[in-house]
Design the sequence.
């Protein structure tokens, strides 16, 4: 639960009541229609939570798997090491993890792990493998390249973040989950930001489910888009996060648990360098983390990738294709998650959004449009 010291009224945050009402109506629409079993939305500004609303069977104390929104947390943990001089994005990964050097991976640099330009998007790694250091090393040695590192952009759903977590452990000298807890969650005052869900919180985890009908290849072609490639983000993979032992791992690319409130407040931390007067990241580090490193590289549908150091920057008028609202500023940054989880901050307004649902809509375009609509309204909620 968010402490009272991190809460404020909508008036104190300068929110527009009419726009907030519009946001709440949009966030609950699919719950009222019976498509989504639960949803939760939060807005934060000036370092404090100004709005948290739960719909369906979601409770204020519910904890949602935020899936790939976890990547920003993992990346922000690495930023701490970079700022402390214990890690450099130009380092060769194999110099830190020797087992990683096989099969041409000896040229990959740390920075390429954050930007999805490392060249091994589909490298296999089972979550429970993380619990066995010897098995981790075997996996790294087995991985092969799909293309030359740095030559293109292709989203790495989980592979590169496993490596970043390993690097954090080797450079910090402690478990990755403990580093996130001690250096991010506790200083921010976010006790319910979990990368590795403890036994004491397992009963509060919202169960993942699927709903709706998946789009056919013809549906995609009718939209003028290629059918998306099959990836590791399958329905079974999503449902595996209903298992306590998988939740406990703290999958660094997609296994954090929290409420929409923690998600919105985490991004306030990234806007201000910390919360409650405790500084975690300097302004210089935050600015450097948001610097776009992917140049003209595009995703599979031709949209410029716009990747910073583990986060996405809204950028040009195609920002909605990157998961932002049409009304976000070009400086907005964040990282959404599978199933429709939304997470961003906008420096232009100081506003941050968290949106979580346990129901994963199989209709990809409908899910995407919902996210764009919620973000577009949310971005205008400042008076």
Sequence:
């Amino acid at each position: 639960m968010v402490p009272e010291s991190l809460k404020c009224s909508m008036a104190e945050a300068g929110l527009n009541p009419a726009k907030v009402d519009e946001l709440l109506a949009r966030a609950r629409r699919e719950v009222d229609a019976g498509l989504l079993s639960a949803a939760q939305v939060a807005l934060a500004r000036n370092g404090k939570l100004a709005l948290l609303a739960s719909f369906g069977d979601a409770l204020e104390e519910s904890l949602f798997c935020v899936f790939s929104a976890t990547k920003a947390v993992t990346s922000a943990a690495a930023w701490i090491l970079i700022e402390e001089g214990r890690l450099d994005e130009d380092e060769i990964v194999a110099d830190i993890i020797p087992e990683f050097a096989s099969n041409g991976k000896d040229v990959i640099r740390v920075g390429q792990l954050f930007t999805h330009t490392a060249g091994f998007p589909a490298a296999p790694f089972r979550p429970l493998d993380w619990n066995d250091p010897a098995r981790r090393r075997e996996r790294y040695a087995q991985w092969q390249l799909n293309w030359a590192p740095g030559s293109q952009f292709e989203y790495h759903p989980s592979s590169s973040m496993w490596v970043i977590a390993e690097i954090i452990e080797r450079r910090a000298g402690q478990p990755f989950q403990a580093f996130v807890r001690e250096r991010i969650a506790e200083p921010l005052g976010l006790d319910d930001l979990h990368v590795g869900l403890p036994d004491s919180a397992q009963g509060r985890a919202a169960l993942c489910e699927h709903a709706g009908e998946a789009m056919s290849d013809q549906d995609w072609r009718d939209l003028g888009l290629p059918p998306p490639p099959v990836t590791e983000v399958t329905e079974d993979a999503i449902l595996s996060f209903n298992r306590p032992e998988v939740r406990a791992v703290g999958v660094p690319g997609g296994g954090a648990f929290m409420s929409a409130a923690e998600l919105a407040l985490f991004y306030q931390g990234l806007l201000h360098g910390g919360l409650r007067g405790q500084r975690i990241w300097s302004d210089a580090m935050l600015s450097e983390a948001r610097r776009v490193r992917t140049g003209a590289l595009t995703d599979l549908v031709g949209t410029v990738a716009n990747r910073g150091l583990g986060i996405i920057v809204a950028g040009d008028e195609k920002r909605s294709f990157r998961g932002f609202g049409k009304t976000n500023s070009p400086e907005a940054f964040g990282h959404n998650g599978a199933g429709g989880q939304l997470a961003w901050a906008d420096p232009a307004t100081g506003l941050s959004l968290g949106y979580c649902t346990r129901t994963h809509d199989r209709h990809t375009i409908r899910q995407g449009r919902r996210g764009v609509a919620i973000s577009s309204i949310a971005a205008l909620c400042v008076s």
